[in-house]
Design goal:
The chain is of the alpha/beta class and 333 residues long. Helices cover 36% and strands 18% of the residues. The chain has a six-stranded parallel sheet, with helices on both faces. Strands 7-10-9-8-11-12 form a six-stranded parallel sheet, with helices on both faces. The longest helix is centred in the N-terminal third of the chain and has 17 residues.
Length: 333
C-alpha cells in the first residue's frame, strides 16, 4: 500500500491572500519545493481543498481549475507530482458531504490510490485540516502559515502531532530517523564518562524550543562551534508548565526533542523535569555552557557551571525572535 501526504492548498503550498484564484497572484512559500522534494521519496501527494469562493460567487469553477492547474504544473516543473486535487466548491451553509472536515475526499483517495491511512499525513493551516486528519485516522501537522496563526487555539483541540512554523519543518518531523540522539536522563552519566575518555569537549545549552525558528538554529550553531559535543537540555512538558503556565508548551516534549535531534549540529538531546537545568548540568559538568545575551553571564546556570570549572559563553541573539514572541503575536492576530 502507498503512503500519502494530504495537503491543504492555500496557506499551505501557496500564499493565501484571500480567495486567491488568479494565476498572476500565485506565490509559493519559499520552502515548499525543498520540503516536498524530500517527502516525495516516500509519499504520494494529494491536495484536498475547500473552495467556498466558488459557492460565494467570487470566482468560477473554470477559474479555479485554471489556477489549480497552474500550481500543479509549476510543482511538476520542480519534480513534484500532485496525484490529484479534491476540492469542495460549495458555500459552507450548503451542508455538503465534500467540505473538510468531512472525510469523503480522503476515503476516495484511499481507494483510488491504494493509500494506507495509518501511515499517511495531513498538512494544513486550518483547524478543519486537523479535524479531517483526526476523523480519517491520519496523523497531522498544523502550520502557522496562512490562517494557521489566527486559528491556533482552535486547532490545538484536535491534537495535531506537531505545530510547525513552516512546511519544511513538517517534512523534517515526518522524516525523522535520529532516535539515537535522544538520550534518557539516567544514561547521561555513562555517556559523559565515555566522551571524557575520548577527550571530547562538551558544550551544553538548554531551553523549551517550542516553535523552532531561525533564532534557535543560529544559537545552536554558535553553541556547536564552542566544542566537540553539543548536548541540548530540553525542558519536559511539566517543566515548561512550571515556567510558562498551563497553556504551554504548544508541542509535546517528544515532538520538540525530535525536531532538535534533526539538526546535524546537535549531538544529544536530554529531557529534564525540574524547573531549572541545574541538576542536569551538575551531572554533565560541561566545559562550556551557552546562553543568549538576554540572560548574560549571570544566568541561573552560571554558578553550577563555574563550580565545575566550566565557562559561560554568551551568544548575541537575533532580536525580536522567540517562541514566546511568536505566540504572543499569534494571540493578537
Amino acid at each position: 500500500m502507498n503512503r500519502a501526504i494530504f495537503l491543504d492548498r492555500d496557506g499551505t503550498i501557496n500564499i493565501d491572500n484571500g480567495y486567491t484564484h488568479k494565476t498572476q497572484d500565485l506565490k509559493f512559500y519559499p520552502d515548499v519545493f525543498k520540503a516536498l522534494s524530500l517527502l516525495k521519496r516516500n509519499f504520494k501527494f494529494i491536495i484536498i481543498t475547500n473552495q467556498s469562493g466558488i459557492g460565494r460567487g467570487y470566482y468560477t469553477e473554470d477559474e479555479f481549475h485554471k489556477f489549480n492547474n497552474h500550481i500543479v504544473n509549476e510543482l511538476k516543473k520542480n519534480g513534484i507530482e500532485i496525484k490529484k486535487t479534491y476540492y469542495c466548491p460549495h458555500h459552507p451553509d450548503e451542508n455538503c458531504n465534500c467540505r473538510k472536515p468531512n472525510i469523503s475526499s480522503i476515503k476516495k483517495a484511499e481507494k483510488e490510490f491504494n493509500i494506507d491511512l495509518n501511515r499517511s499525513w495531513m498538512i494544513g493551516d486550518h483547524p478543519c485540516d486537523m479535524e479531517l486528519g483526526k476523523n480519517a485516522g491520519v496523523r497531522s501537522i498544523y502550520l502557522l502559515t496562512g490562517h494557521g496563526a489566527k486559528h491556533l487555539e482552535e486547532a490545538r483541540k484536535f491534537n495535531p502531532d506537531y505545530i510547525a512554523a513552516e512546511i519544511s519543518q513538517a517534512a523534517d518531523y515526518i522524516l525523522f530517523n535520529k532516535e539515537e540522539k535522544i538520550i534518557d536522563r539516567k544514561d547521561i552519566t555513562s555517556i559523559i564518562e565515555t566522551l571524557r575518555r575520548e577527550g571530547k569537549s562538551i558544550v551544553t545549552i538548554n531551553g523549551t524550543f517550542d516553535i523552532l525558528h531561525k533564532g534557535h538554529e543560529f544559537i545552536l550553531k554558535e553553541a556547536k562551534k564552542q566544542g566537540d559535543i553539543l548536548i541540548v537540555g530540553l525542558n519536559s512538558d511539566s517543566s515548561v508548565k512550571q515556567n510558562k503556565g498551563p497553556e504551554r508548551p504548544l508541542n509535546s516534549e517528544q515532538s520538540r526533542a525530535r525536531m532538535l535531534a534533526n539538526f546535524d549540529f546537535v549531538d544529544y538531546v536530554v529531557l529534564f523535569n525540574e524547573k531549572t537545568p541545574i541538576d542536569l548540568l551538575e551531572a554533565i559538568k560541561p566545559d562550556i555552557h551557552v546562553n543568549g545575551d538576554d540572560y548574560g553571564e549571570n544566568c541561573i546556570e552560571s554558578g553550577i557551571v563555574k563550580k565545575n570549572s566550566g565557562k559561560i559563553h554568551i551568544v548575541k541573539k537575533i532580536k525580536g525572535i522567540s517562541s514566546t514572541n511568536i505566540i504572543e503575536s499569534i494571540s493578537k492576530t
